[in-house]
Amino acid sequence: xxxxxxxxxxxxxxxxxxxxxxxxxxxxxxxxxxxxxxxxxxxxxxxxxxxxxxxxxxxxxxxxxxxxxxxxxxxxxxxxxxxxxxxxxxxxxxxxxxxxxxxxxxxxxxxxxxxxxxxxxxxxxxxxxxxxxxxxxxxxxxxxxxxxxxxxxxxxxxxxxxxxxxxxxxxxxxxxxxxxxxxxxxxxxxx
Amino acid sequence: xxxxxxxxxxxxxxxxxxxxxxxxxxxxxxxxxxxxxxxxxxxxxxxxxxxxxxxxxxxxxxxxxxxxxxxxxxxxxxxxxxxxxxxxxxxxxxxxxxxxxxxxxxxxxxxxxxxxxxxxxxxxxxxxxxxxxxxxxxxxxxxxxxxxxxxxxxxxxxxxxxxxxxxxxxxxxxxxxxxxxxxxxxxxxxxxxxxxxxxxxxxxxxxxxxxxxxxxxxxxxxxxxxxxxxxxxxxxxxxxxxxxxxxxxx
Amino acid sequence: xxxxxxxxxxxxxxxxxxxxxxxxxxxxxxxxxxxxxxxxxxxxxxxxxxxxxxxxxxxxxxxxxxxxxxxxxxxxxxxxxxxxxxxxxxxxxxxxxxxxxxxxxxxxxxxxxxxxxxxxxxxxxxxxxxxxxxxxxxxxxxxxxxxxxxxxxxxxxxxxxxxxxxxxxxxxxxxxxxxxxxxxxxxxxxxxxxxxxxxxxxxxxxxxxxxxxxxxxxxxxxxxxxxxxxxxxxxxxxxxxxxxxxxxxxxxxxxxxxxxxxxxxxxxxxxxxxxxxxxxxxxxxxxxxxxxxxxxxxxxxxxxxxxxxxxxxxxxxxxxxxxxxxxxxxxxxxxxxxxxxxxxxxxxxxxxxxxxxxxxxxxxxxxxxxxxxxxxxxxxxxxxxxxxxxxxxxxxxxxxxxxxxxxxxxxxxxxxxxxxxxxxxxxxxxxxxxxxxxxxxxxxxxxxxxxxxx
Lengths: 191, 250, 454
Description:
The complex is a heterotrimer.
Chain A: H1 3-14, H2 35-45, E1 49-51, H3 55-68, E2 73-75, H4 90-93, E3 98-102, E4 105-107, E5 113-116, H5 117-120, H6 125-128, E6 131-136, E7 141-142, H7 145-151, E8 159-163, E9 168-169, E10 177-178, E11 185-190
Parallel strand pairs in A: 1-11, 2-3, 3-6, 4-7, 6-11
Antiparallel strand pairs in A: 4-5, 5-8, 9-10
Chain B: E1 7-10, H1 14-19, H2 21-33, E2 37-39, H3 49-53, H4 61-71, E3 76-79, H5 82-91, H6 98-107, E4 108-110, H7 111-118, E5 131-134, H8 138-143, H9 159-164, E6 171-173, H10 188-191, H11 193-209, E7 214-217, H12 220-233, E8 238-241, H13 242-246
Parallel strand pairs in B: 1-2, 1-3, 3-4, 5-6, 5-7, 7-8
Helix pairs in contact in B: 11-12
Chain C: H1 6-14, H2 17-38, H3 44-60, H4 62-75, E1 79-83, H5 86-99, E2 105-107, H6 111-115, H7 118-124, E3 129-131, H8 134-141, H9 158-169, H10 178-195, E4 198-201, E5 205-207, E6 212-217, H11 221-228, E7 231-237, E8 241-242, H12 246-259, E9 267-271, E10 279-285, H13 289-293, H14 309-313, H15 315-318, H16 331-341, H17 358-362, H18 369-382, H19 388-402, H20 404-420, H21 431-435, H22 446-453
Parallel strand pairs in C: 1-10, 2-3, 2-4, 4-7, 5-8, 7-10
Antiparallel strand pairs in C: 5-6, 6-9
């Protein structure tokens, strides 16, 4: 008998009698009076920055100033991508400075934003960039993760990720260090 | 207070009987003054917890049988130790019919919950003009829910504090870590001596910062552990059982 | 190798009191962050209840869910492997490495691979794995094991890390700045990610209805490795299954708040299919879990989502350090999981607790940890894994306490001895007396007084 059958048989004979799934009433979960305000608070708490006044103008300024520095940027907000980003490998993305992309959903309780595989074009991009810029329509902010999963189909694509803040670690004496392996900063533009 | 005088069996843990008779006397006197028809069944020994918590619950049959023999037939069984009460509630399994055992498990109360929930005490004539540090004992708190727990998201309450608030002149002081274990832990106190003592010392440190004269608790086992450390440190701070404070100058 | 029992290792740990205090306070700080986070959600206790029931349900239907998960995962192009034991797990991974002639491997935090001792296994075959979680990387350089499942290097101070990095990464001697140290590791590890050919990750949650799985990190190290490398191997215990994606809402809300007090990890990555040109493997591991499932008293330990809240709250863990538990998973949850893996070798662990119950209270899936510690004690004694001294002592105690007359006689004599010849107990053979005074023995017991005064 192979491992699979051994395991499944052991599980089948050792499991308890069937117990019911809980009846979850999500109306009992937290609702915020001001979703945008709560979301922005959580972005800041997670070490990110959020811009909501003149968001569009701020974003254009951001793009212009990073471009002016002559750094490698990937702007996934453009309708027609400059090139096929999906084809790039880690070595080719190594020097990526800033990436601009759109999130389709955001969560007020924790500042997390859902980035689908389509939006990121290449799975490595949102992780390998030094700085991550996410553009978001404030109308897509939901209260909490239950609402998020009700709206999303997380298995619709091959990959997707909730991102909340820049990468971080506290592995040295519980001291928070922003910029562990992934992006060192996160800017969110609410437009 | 209920109209009918209740038949109450006084359950005194073995080590209190032997080493801390004053705690038992205070409990006895307090309940008497509050109008209970109180009996101390004289052939009681131990609830069996020391063996059971050490993994030898197979050896507690004798204790169970003796406990049931002594405490059958009371309306309530009251004990100045949350830990021993919890043991009876959770692990009494021999010595009577299932119904008899169930009745005992249902009617055994730790002193402060008996005073608050059954006698519904709302005033005491006690007076204890001292700075008192409150130690919350784990089994009473997390096992019997004598107070809210810092880990849980729930409204704050404390039956012990409710009682102490009725004591004149008493200034209650709380340690920074409100409900961390003292480190006694039954036989843990000898088999894990180093951790046990360290835990006790750390609790005491927080009380000393508050400038307490007494550390008060509802479980003498925790207090015995504190007392041993305090005495070794040459400290003037004393330990005192809740019953002794509630019974003071009543 | 002689493994020290918990009590002995703890005694050793406590000898350095300043460090013990630091360890205790640092983890208490984490526990406090957890308290603040959970108190922002009025529904916290309801969430715990839901999570507990979802896991109970899943365990009661686990074979069905495993099959469903496998079927969907295979449909999605994932290679699914089954490992009955740690040895099988290691062999499967080695075969993938060997078949693809790989030598650059990065691994993100996976307690399962630690449990299976994958690194040692591969090292014996001449294959090096780089642990990419910063904490794991630090302990790997030091040839140590993680002392905490979420904070692997919590037993180390910045000075220790600085020395290690000076030796291995050539950082400035005496530079203890965490920013500088982490920055250097970032620089070094990014190169390793970019050249990685194969990335190993753990799995936080595997979704039966879709065949997808979720990996959570703050550092982004799992994603950096996986999306760089052409092969991804994800390793999961059979208990990682949850029925539906909507259940992720419950668990992701609980996991990080319990673990570190964050409302969610920085990255919660949802994997469904390999990217174009990538191989994705899933290794589903039993290694004693189905046996634990068959123990009614202990099966719900399999609900654990590895948040380590029980570590941080445990007053014993905080003052004895993770290594004193001589196991991959330390702390209270480790003390109820490890006896299932090897009851004899881990017979000390269920006793490394005061049964204070704080662990059960913080557990986001409501495992009755302290009750299981109590039950494991019974099991261990029943199986004979207890010292003779303790056994004799307990039998003696039971005999005395069962017979009221003998109890009273022994009590009277005992108190008399304590008053008359205190040195009999007040000596170094008595562990109580080592750092504590004995109670004062009174002339009369309460019973004596009662008989005279009633």
